[in-house]
Amino acid sequence: MTDNNFSSTAAFLWSVADLLRGDFKQSQYGRIILPFTLLRRLECVLEATKPAVLGKYEAVKSMPIEAQDKLLTHAAQLSFYNTSKMDLNRLGETDVASNLESYIQSFSPNAREIFEHFDFFNTLDKLAEADLLYKVAKRFATTDLHPNVINNYGMGLVFEELIRRFAESSNETAGEHFTPRDIVRLTTSLVFTNDDDALTQSGLVRSIYDPTAGTGGFLSSGMEYVLELNNKASLSAFGQELNPESYAICKADMLIKGQKVDNIKLGNTLSNDQLPTEKFDYMLSNPPFGVDWKKIQKQINDEHTEKGFEGRFGAGLPRVSDGSLLFLMHLVSKMRPQHEGGSRIGIILNGSPLFTGGAGSGESEIRRYILENDLLEAIVALPTDMFYNTGIATYVWVLSSHKPANRKGKVQLINAAKERAKTGGRGRSGGGEVEGNDENVFYAAMRKSLGSKRKELKEDAIETIVKTYGQFVENDFSKIFDYQEFGYRRITVERPLQLAVYPKDELRISALTTDKSWNKLNEHTQHSILTALASLKDDKYLSRDVFLNALTTELATVTPAVKLSAAQLKLIVKHLGEHDDEAEVCKTKGKVEANPDLRDNENVPLTETVDEYFAREVLPHVPDAWIDTSKTDDKDGEVGIVGYEIPFNRHFYVYEPPRALEAIDADLDAVSAEIMQLLQEVHS
């Protein structure tokens, strides 16, 4: 089937919208057209074996459901069947709704479930109320969708086109369930491109998986990619989706393509993985951006603590406000080891997984696991405004458990988010986007925005990105790093406690006497302390020990004598003392005390030693500083806690010097002259 043929078939099917206009909203068209298309395709596919199924049904209808299903599936020679004598051409002109419902109820459970999740029976009632049901059914009945006219691949293209139209007609919520086709194409190409040679082998059998399947865009794109290389390849699709309607569309699409639809599951992937023991060759996913996982926090925490690395989340847990990295770890858990052929992943994430969380945090530990296990091949930065429901910056992560030798220990960053050239070509005044000719610009402005999607990747841009990734080269938009360059050790830098004490400062004494701990002292002790402070001979002490000795001595002379505990002495020093570089260093049992207020952290690159960095970057500025060697990394036991972050934008930052003052002055003079001219015109 040519592109023109499938486009014209899809256009004809979508033209049912002409009947619906006025009685239904534009965003509702897909909920009618998609299930009717599926229904017509299924009955066309079943037509050849329908007599055998009806004959078998008479013989087995008294058997248990499980036995019936097995025997009828065998009779249909497909993974689904229908036991009704009815079809869209034999619904009659009366009781159309009840006849259609009976017809759909006669499908095998795996097919019938799709219509149920489409809420199709409710749709039939609404069509009947609008007196449109018979007309719509007849329109689909006249469309020839038999497999000898349109094969599974061609029918898949038709259905995808209908899904696309549905997505665009309901773009206010499309981003939750649909991934734009240009993003799907790029991500799929990145994941499959290095395996092109392997994918052309005869007898190829591979699996593809999407844990956030949506309407099945990634699964369809993966199958198309492989079939274009090798039309005899067998690619089994697996997926799970939370939204019932999207699940129905995905399952329908897989059924149309001849896939085993039992591999498509409904439910929350993170809290209820319904393919727990499966491993996959290829995985593609566009999980929701920045969605919290508070509702399923207990299940996730339990798996993390009870199963560790035997489960999916052993590396760590991100903050509950963003579950993106949970989906990434879920996919990693589905990877085959290298000796079993390995796996490849393409996942779309927002910017926070690159850098959120400091050393030792859940996010950092997840990045550490991925980088130190050498799973990350590349990250591609996409332009903003690429998705239906958000304009934020997004990134495609490409992971592999069987990296080629030249990629071992390396990570490639590709910046496809380059801004449009600001000079040359046609432009709009007032600071609008300019149609520049920069060959390194990767996006084009869309003629018509779809929700928040205002840009799309150009075909040649996708080809350039994929080629740059595949050839593993560096240029002005591609850089290659050793993975250690993203790592650091967070060391704790201490400085000595040096306190000057001011026993007669009224503001400090007022702060002391309003402290809650002060009020726990009895009146005699309170009065004795204040009297002793006033009796001290010095207004300022540059030694904490000298001050405390003087205070203790004074308190010993009162009747009855007052002896303060260490906590009470600490309370007094807390309010009356402050850091002073001229003061004596405070010590306890001969050990220098650290000043918590001067405590600082330094991130030492993993490519350097801690001692060299400390000597170069810290000691020249604070010669009395030292490293707290008690704070060590849990995994390697060395000083400093290891952290990882991928500061993508920093690596592509290009300094632009400010404009010359002369140019700014010239602009101001021109504006001033224009203002004066306008004022003269007003007064004249």
Task: Tell me about this structure.
With 684 residues, the protein is α/β, with parallel strands linked by helices. Helices cover 42% and strands 15% of the residues. It has 26 helices and 21 strands. Strands 3-2-1-4-5-7-6-8-13 form a 9-stranded mixed beta sheet, with helices on both faces. Helix 3 packs antiparallel against helix 10 (152-169). The longest helix has 23 residues, at 661-683. The N and C termini lie far apart (74 Å). Residues 420-438 have low confidence and may be disordered.
Please summarize what this structure is:
By secondary structure, the chain is an alpha/beta fold. The chain has 26 helices and 21 strands. A hairpin with a 6-residue loop joins strand 9 (426-427) and strand 10 (434-435).
Helix fraction by DSSP (H/I, runs of at least 4): 40-55%
Number of helices: 26
C-alpha termini separation: 74 Å
Beta-strand portion reads 5-15%
Q: Are there runs of 5+ residues with pLDDT below 50, and where?
A: 420-438
Overall mean confidence score, pLDDT: 90
Query: What structural class should be given to the helix and strand makeup?
Result: alpha/beta
Overall 3D form: elongated
Computed over alpha carbons, the radius of gyration is 35 Å
Q: In what order do the strands lie side by side in the largest sheet?
A: 3-2-1-4-5-7-6-8-13
- Total strand segments: 21
Taking the sheet with the most strands, its summary is:
9 strands, mixed
